[in-house]
Amino acid sequence: MDYYKITGGKKLKGEVKISGAKNAALPIIVASLLADGETVLCNVPNLKDVFTMLKVIECLGAETEYDAEKNILKIKTNKIKKAEIPYELVKTMRASVYVMGPMLARLGFADVSLPGGCAIGERPIDIHLAGFESLGAEIGIERGYVIAKAKKLKGTRFIMRKVSVGATINIMMAAVMADGETILENCAMEPDVVDCANFLMKMGAKIEGAGSEKIIIQGVKKLNPIHYTIMPDRIEAGTYLLAGAITRGDVTVTNVISEHVSALCSALSEIGFQIRRGKDWIRVLPGKKLRGIYVKTLPYPGFPTDLQAPIMALMTTLPGISVVNETIFENRFTHVGELRRMGAKIEVEGNMAIVHGGTQLSAAPVMMSDLRAGASLVLAALAAKGTTEIRRIYHSDRGYEKLSEKLSSLGADIKREKGGGY
Question: What is the pTM of this model?
Answer without folding.
Answer: 0.95
